Amino acid sequence: MPSARTRAARTRRVSFRAADHLAKTFRQLADRWRAETRFVSSVEKLSMNPSYQRIIGMGAPAVPLLLRELKEKPDHWFWALEAITGANPVPVEDQGDIQKMAEAWLSWGHQHRYL
Amino acid sequence: MASNYLELTFPNLRGTAYRITSPSSPAYNCIAWAAGETHRWWWPTPSYYWPRGITREATLSAFLAVFQSLGYTVCDDARLEAGFEKVAIYADAGGVPSHAARQLESGEWTSKLGPDVDIRHTDLKSLESAVYGVVSHILSRRKPAR
Predict the structure, then answer these.
(1) Which chain B residues are Cβ-neighbours of A102 within 8 angstroms?
(2) Does the ipTM exceed 0.85?
(3) What percentage of residues in chain B have a pLDDT greater than 70?
(4) CA B126 – CA B129 distance, rounded (Å)
């Protein structure tokens, strides 16, 4: 029977692999979403894109990835974040201002220990 | 500067004298650009900018109301008229607004293509496509005094 230390190491390896897989899947979906919606203004169409919907379907584990993406390259991830978390930290006066919307979500992410 | 990636999506641009006039940016969209802004994304979805008092719905009547709130009225054609500026609203096959363009003093049009680049295009037909559908309405207003 493996020791507790061996079991813990195995669990860490599995969770690292799962996190790595999730990050790669996220990257592929995010890139595909950008390519498929590069000329789209409609927020509904941006958000209903199948790749975007698959990111929403990843649930809570996608939140840190979305926030990091938002930090590195502000983009329209707000619908996904709201759909997954149920939160909306964007003040009314900042609606539509992508930079300020991103800042509001990053601040929320720090407060809720996603970052 | 012509760019084939644009012509793949907007085949009516082929052979026309269009040019890219800005880098890509997710900060503003075609509606904002047609209204003269470059720091907000205008769309009726909650959490995005939409002029106060206008119904938050992606319908032609709501989009017309946005430009009417800026002093535009619906007009008949897209010809250049001295003393007037014009915008055009495109709608998809379901009649849902998809894009807006603004006329320049030269008579050309300027469009922000979603989160991608701004372009100058010679006419409105250039952007009629599977993505944007066709021009639905033209609106005009007297140019503000400078």
Answers:
(1) none
(2) yes
(3) 97
(4) 8
